[in-house]
Records
---
Amino acid sequence: MYANYIGFATVGRIQVKPISTSIEDGFALPSIAEFEKAITPKTKAILICNPNNPTGYLYSKEELLVLREICLKHDLFLFVDEVYREFLYGGKSFFSSLNLEGMEQHVVVFDSISKRFSACGARIGALVTRNKEVLASALKFGQARLSPNSLGQIAGESLFDLSDEYYRGIVAEYQKRRDVLIAGLNKIPGVKCPNPGGAFYAVAELPINDSDHFCQWMLEKFSYQNATVMMAPASGFYATTGAGKNQVRIAYVLNADDLQAALEILAEGLKVYAAGSN
């Protein structure tokens, strides 16, 4: 999961119960049975990020219908972080949870301009729901805090005037980067990486035992052609202790040539690390 969810939940005194996904099936939605095991009388909501950060997995309409069934059965909210919904690859289409029939009072969508327009730091977002009670509660919280800065609001409004051509160009570039990265990763001996359907992240499994140590070692002690690679240990994206210790999250926000160079550095780094020079 997106690591900040844990921090937000802690501030709100909310207990997050993780339902594990697996790299073996590309981080697809777990079965209904796995959700049923975690639900108690105190359960209030299911939270997903679609497309997903950190895995890039794109939940299908069929998977969202499974969540609809669970939410209606147990009277739960469905919180959906849709900030990456424009970043879809391979001709895939996006189905918003707001379009789930019968879920008008259950769905709450979170959105932001920071990813869609590469406006990181602007901090202009939205909470979207048809549930008037939720909106009223959110408004009270909003009125108790300062609003986003005026410049960010003005710029954010203008960004929505961009044409569809803007999105087509951005998505085409990210798909090119994704294809270079995923193909390159899966060519490295011992590396496994599913093909993300959206966002601009991938989680790769490496032939290592401790990604925290490996990522730190790459930054502090390894260099190939006077360069190294910075990755995020995937353990920081799991709520289950010990999970993801042989995985890393990679953001393909560099151009294709730089990604190709990074793949070469990673491959060499894995060779040296396996030889025990760490």
---
Amino acid sequence: MDYLKLIEKEIRKQRFGKEPATLYEPIRYIMSLGGKRLRPVLVLLAYNMYRSRPSGRSLKLKTSGNQTLQQIVSFAVAVEAFHNFTLMHDDIMDQAPIRRGKPTVHKKWGENTAILSGDVMLVKVYEMLSALEPELLHKALPIFNKTAVEVCEGQQLDMDFETRETVSEKEYLNMIRLKTAVLLGFSLAFGALLAGAPEQDQKLLYRFGVGIGTGFQLRDDILDVYANQDKFGKQVGGDIISNKKTYLLIKALELCKGKDLESLRYWLSAKKFNKKEKVLAVTALYDKVGIHTLASKKADAYFRESYALLKGLSSGVSIDDLTDYAKVLMSRQN
């Protein structure tokens, strides 16, 4: 099944609102920028793991089955809309100029409009989810609300880290779990819930999603430094320029010694600098202590541990499509 085609068709259909156009056009703009559509794809993958099972299997699905595939896609797009709402506001906080190769909303329409359009996006997400059958809504809403709060907690921690001199590896991994990974976990658990999967399977898929989500963010940290600008879709070296406490920087501060540590601390404290020069200098220090390899191994470990969880799913559930998709994420270059 071509999940992306279904998702893009549903996104084009969603208008989100009409007037004033200056409020709703930024929403349509950010939703039209494309991307991997990772979260809605995970919703549909989990749903079809259970709803498309071969006949003759004994697993009983606890659902009335009244939701149509079209409705399932619209619920998946609601998750994507929530993700893009967070991106719209995150870009303002980070003063990011580029998103998916295009100007960010606040650069194109101004910060005030970007804030307000983001607020409306969140309201529209709840409006889209309200179409769930009452029993499913009752189960899904508390999980979604918890996830939404955790995403905000992760973003606040990320900003707090910018003003702290030191951040531990444990603190950083918890931050990316909240900011990025829990929404991937929710996406899989939500898709399984919509299909009526057993609660234990929903929990395992949630944990799987959190694991690959953490690995995914570590990959993103690596790509921010080492990606090809033409493929990456946002500013390469942005984390270095803004002194973001990424896994790469945390480990570099731990491993650099002597003059290398002095040089790294110089670039972190510099108020005026040439952006390109700073990115090249810090990247060279990363290379010297093997940060790329170290971070890649850490990301790979999260993926391996996540795969092991799938062995606990109900007998007869096919995990092939999900694991294939996770492997694509594992080897991503943009």
---
Amino acid sequence: MNSRFEPQAAVAGAQAAMGTSAAIVTASYAPDFDRCRLLCETLDRYVSGTKHHYLLVEHSDIQLFRRLEGPHRTVVDEKDILPRWLHVFSDPLSLFSRRIWLSLKAPPLRGWHVQQLRRIAIAAHISEDVLVYCDSDVAFLKPFDLGAFQRDGKVRLFRRDNAFSSGAPDKHGLWSCNAGSLLGIAQPAVSPHDYISTLIAWRRASVTDMCAHIEKLHGRHWVEALAADRRFSECLVYGRFVDEVIGGKDHFHGAEEFCRVHWTGEALSDEAFRSFVAAMTPEQVAIGMQSFIGTDLGRIRRLLGQID
């Protein structure tokens, strides 16, 4: 394990010994660095109930993201948490502008696949009890305590009930079906529930139990089994595992989304951005501006300053 990372595991272990502990986990990459910096700034300002923030990045991005490290923030090299047989290269088919992960045990993987793998893999390397996942293009606008993800010793599982009952979008239905196959769930082939959101929590011990379950079922490393079909969602895999394999043990459900996300569409104008923020529901404490949409980060920073 990376020497910059290992001492933090010991710190986390000490925190866990004193009671339930929580960490925030963010998977990111170089093009999102400035957005991730804004996340860190707003997280440090508004978020309580956590002692550590883990940034999970590709090996070549380590030095860039080290700028964001501090006493309560650690940058984790994916080489320290993913199997050694998974190798990353610049993709010649994209004129070397994109990255591709290759191995003899899985089909070629893209960055969004590997970010999901990191989010799962980190659970085996830290000791905090609750892992709160937050995308790097999120910014907090209001005070928020991570205690919202815990109740009577249980962890909040985001679940939008019967979201797919009237017909799931093709890709969501396929992701859910593949999650069921991966976990050995025969019926239903597609869960009616949606577990996908940002700013959600998982129970660390349940994540490691999920990986062990997959390995026992398939007789191979969980990364190899999961990546065998690239059409997957880590949120649907975890949600179906909790609800349908372990019967909801140590979890409770919540459908409120704490982060309002601009998922698709065009870059927001100043007026549209203000309207977007004004439409936040009372429980929402953060906004997510999907980086691929192209809303200018400088505009976001300026408008957030005006909101303050």
